[in-house]
Structures are given as structure tokens and as C-alpha cells.
Amino acid sequence: MRFAKGHGTENDFVILPDPDGRLDLAPSAVAALCDRRAGIGADGVLRVVRTAALGGEPAGAAASAAGCEWFMDYRNADGSVAEMCGNGVRVFARYLVEQGLAKAPAFSVGTRAGARGIVVEDDGDITVDMGAARVLGEGAARLAGGDVRGLRISVGNPHLACRVDGGSAAVAAMDLTAAPELDPAEFPEGANVEVFAEVAPGTLQMRVYERGSAETRSCGTGIVAAAAAATPPGEGATWLVRVPGGECTVFLDSQGARLRGPAVIVAEGETRLP
After folding, report:
1. Binding site residues for substrate, as ranges?
2. Who has the most CB within 10 Å: 74, 108, 150, 218?
3. What average pLDDT does this structure show over 144-162?
4. Which domains does the chain have, with CATH numbers?
5. Residue 85: active-site member
């Protein structure tokens, strides 16, 4: 099986080219690919498949995805299906451009959260139209080091974005070694949990525990969720968000959210894993 490996701010992915939709990705196969000792190692898998090969209406996807030539079938490291991945869609777009499957500077990619507009910037960064970041109300989680409260936010997938006091040191001190305990009534499908602090005007520091993947070096939808949680209701803003793997910029306005950051393909090859 052919594969490529890429990352966006060190949120890394195994990319599987499957234009005709022939791969049957069992959760065990995804987990084997993402295993960092016995596999290739990644936070998730991006299957590159033509939307037409999925019947034109990908199961579980928003209707707008049907109009895109390529569909990003994203799986978490444990094999579970995810609706959207902000870093993953940038890496997916980079792969399409480098393989000659899409033409820069602008095109769209289908995801389970719907079509996502892509712009390849002159400096090589990739900007993704992330759609609306919807604030759904307050929520809480129990971490290994104690309870946190924040805002429940949908970026096509569910988040709990929690502001903490104490700046970068407080963010660094948060214990994300174990999966957060969430109220199933608030998060029936689980959620990514972000902890963040404003460390300078217009700048956030963030860490994240990703549903199905544990703590990761970055999370694109989580970056957008933290920016939305830091922005007063009804206002627009531009945030630089720093994560352990680098930094991205979020633009919030009445049209929704746009996420800009790097995306790199680091390797290609073949694997014998199932």
C-alpha cells in the first residue's frame, strides 16, 4: 500500500492515496498505521479519495462536500471517524497540489463537515475556510490535575475550549496525560479539550487533548475553537495561536473562521501494514 507522511505544526498524518475508493479501512488497520513503534506513526490517517467513488454523497458528510472532486476521509489514531481536522485538511491540500491532483492557488476539499475552501498563499502557507465556529454554551471537563470550565464550540467537530489564568506557565502545567472526563449530556460524541491563555495582545498559547488521539502537538480545529472562545460575542478578531508544534493564525469575522498555517509532506513510500 502506498503512503505519504505529512504534518501541520507537528500534528502528523499518514496519507493514503485511494482515488477509486477501494481501501477498506478497519479501525485496527488505522491504529496499526498510527502506532509510533510498530507502525509509521501519526495522529491520524487521511484517505485521499475521489468524491465520485463514494457515490457523490459521502456517508455522514454535509451535502456541500458532494460538489468537491476530492474527499478527505479522516480517521483518528484509534481508528474512529472524525468530522473535520484543520491541520489535516491543510496537509491533504498540500498533497493534492504536489501530486498534481489539484491546481493552486484555490480549490475546495470535501470533508464530513462540508466543503472547505483552500488557498495556497504566496509564502507557501495554506489558508482554509473553516466555516462557522459556533459557541454552544458553557461546559466542563475533569482533567487528571483537576476540573476546568470553558465554552462548548463546534468547528464541524466538538470542542471544549477552556481559558486558564496564569499565562504560558499555567498552560504548560495542565495535566493532559489522561483522557478528559466529559458529561455525555453535553458531549454525546466526546470532544477535543483545549486549554489556552492570552499571553500577549492578539496571541494565545494553547494545548489540546484530541478525542481519539490523546495530547497532540497541535489541532487545527482546536486552534479555531480557542480563538473563538477568546473573542467577545459578536466581534471579529485575528489571533496568533501558539501550540507545542508551532503557530497558526485565525481570522474570525461575520463570514466565519479562516485558519492559516504551514503544511509539509515529509516522506512517501510503501507499507506492508494491513
Report:
1. 11, 76, 86-87, 157, 192, 210-211, 220-221
2. 218
3. 96
4. 2-129+262-270 (3.10.310.10), 134-258 (3.10.310.10)
5. yes
